[in-house]
Amino acid sequence: MTENLNVFAVRTLTQKEYFSPGHRSCQGCAEALAVRLVAKALGRNVIVANATGCMEIVSSPLPYTAWRVPWIHVAFENTAAVASGIESALKVLMRKGRIPRKKIVTVAMGGDGGTADIGLQALSGALERGHNFLYVCTDNEAYMNTGIQRSSATPFGAATTTSPVGRVQMGQITWKKNMPAIAAAHNIPYVATACPSYPIDLVQKVKKAADIEGPAYVHILSVCPTGWRTAPELSIRLGRLAVETGIFPLYEVERGQYRLSVDFPKLKPVKEYLKLQGRFRHLTDEMIAEIEKRVHAEYEQLRAKAGKGS
Amino acid sequence: MAKRIGMEVSIAAAEAVKQANVDVISAYPITPQTHIVEHLAELVANGDLDADFFCVESEHSALSVCVGAAATGARTFTCTSSQGLALMSEITYIASGLRLPIVMIVSNRTLSAPLSIWNDHSDVMSIRDCGWIQFFVENGQESYDHVFAAYRLAEENSVLFPVIINMDGFILSHVIEPIELIEQGKIDQFLPPYQPVHQLHPDHPVTMGAFALPAIFAETKKAQEEALRSSMPKIIETWKAFGDMSGRYYHPVETYQAEDADTLLVTMGSYGETASVAVDKMREAGRSVGLVKIRLWRPFPFDDLKKATLHAKQLVVIDRAISVGACGPVASEVKAALYGNDQRPSVYNFVAGISGRDVTPSDFVKMVDKAEIEIAEGNKEGFEIYGVRG
Ligand SMILES: Cc1ncc(C[n+]2csc(CCOP(=O)(O)OP(=O)(O)O)c2C)c(N)n1
Ligand code: SF4
Ligand SMILES: [Mg+2]
Questions:
Q1: What is the value of ipTM here, to two decimals?
Q2: Is the Cα torsion angle A286, A292, A293, A298 positive or negative in sign?
């Protein structure tokens, strides 16, 4: 169902753009596509706080801006705190009658570095305090803005400029941090994963997250051709392969209940995903087998949580 | 005249924040700032203050919350000390660059290492160049008064800068002093609700915090620099308006027995009161000594300082922080202010009272004695850390 819907129904999305064209992202940047879809899903009654990173830099070279909604960038690690302040101010100013009462969604956006690494403390604080806001992590699996350095969301084996392939070490030696699980552990009402290769699914999740009272977290896998050493025209394909191989499953955690958005009783071999990417070029068959074993085990754990255990 | 009530200075400062009708308060506890936030939490919990108060997970976030809230159009408050200010430092520059009228009380405390909770000015000196308007206060009444002046000034359309009120930790924050509280009606007139020029709202989308290429960065910095410098008349005007309302008038540089003095002590913060006792003693002994107190640290009042000091033979500048490897930060500024004048006093610099070491009136007398002897012997630009053993 999600499969078909996502292939054919994209045209049903609004034609309006709130993250406008003309920004400076690379060709085939699926992170920019993710942001564009998030912005479409949210519409105009939002305020966006953006962490330092590719999306901030490509969209706001003074005196230009790609943003047609109110937008603020403050620093790299504090976006969730800035959003806390926005949400709090809206609440108080409406209560005191200084601005008219209406629903305005507060959104914080950060990359994987700004979320899972340097911004984790501010995010945890904001989730724990229960602010009514949506946090969107656009995960391209490294610090792309500063030149492809590893983050804690970089997958095992991937070559980055700080997890290079050397004579004694082959790329990232740690496993990707499970950021959605960390968000869910805060007992917030809504957590979801999404990918712009499944645009309708992404838009629906963002809309749902924005409507929910309290903190919501959406984690979006965002293919980065520049950092992943992939062909720009493969970005959508790669996002789909990430899902179809079980490497990046699409799911929701609503009030603690896990639900898979698409389920594959038989996953595609991870090799189909890995072989298209320069960052994995050096992987040996043993390493690929190790990756596949862990991906399958984690996928089964997720299925079990979603009540689909085999 | 209104009644004076004995209260702890931190409580008085928190009461002022309440009377200023702030919208969002965000802070993280650190000694000696804690009593201010604790009292604010109590005021909100009792419904005496209609504000959103939250204790965040770090000072970095505390100031970031204020940035987000101020950008959305709220009147915001935070306060901190020492390590907390150091952790915030990244965001202090951004708050000023974004021209957000946040008010922060810094209950001044030294910076580690070694760890120490006691007072000096090394915390605020570490963010000296962050582009906030910075006041130093001398006593409890001034701490209370400056909260109102700070908001009115910060929110002035032609100013729009965040303001720091430096209030010496423990020496002021934890003592009980007689404070004259101002009636709420007067405050409401002096400080109407904040009317932002730009605010984050979907009805008029704006982009805040864009990045600048070198081709435009210098222009934006120049604009900020000029705006901070040209806020000087507004600062003076605000203090004048405050004085007309309260009867207490403040100035960028204040003097005591200074007009005819050959030797001038120069201080900043709570030292002022102690130093004035020392001046009285020395005057009684027939010595030509006076006092110059710097209240406004940024923008630095070069002209006022010159006016107050150029006639003297020597200045004894007492710093409460060290720029390690150089000298005291106040002395650097004072020297810079005087440099363009052919006839200028010698400047002898002491760093005293760091990490809360007690400095009494007789210590000030000793420092003046020492400076006068050294200068007479030709050491016209001395620098030393006063009262150190060994
Ligand atoms: C405190 C701080 N440390 C480091 C940086 C440098 N920096 C800016 S963006 C960035 C990486 C961003 O990575 P991520 O959050 O994953 O976003 P991406 O650029 O990949 O979209 C880094 C390290 C900074 N701006 N601030
Ligand atoms: S480096 Fe990657 S994430 Fe950044 S703009 Fe280019 S493609 Fe997008
Ligand atoms: Mg990234």
A1: 0.97
A2: positive
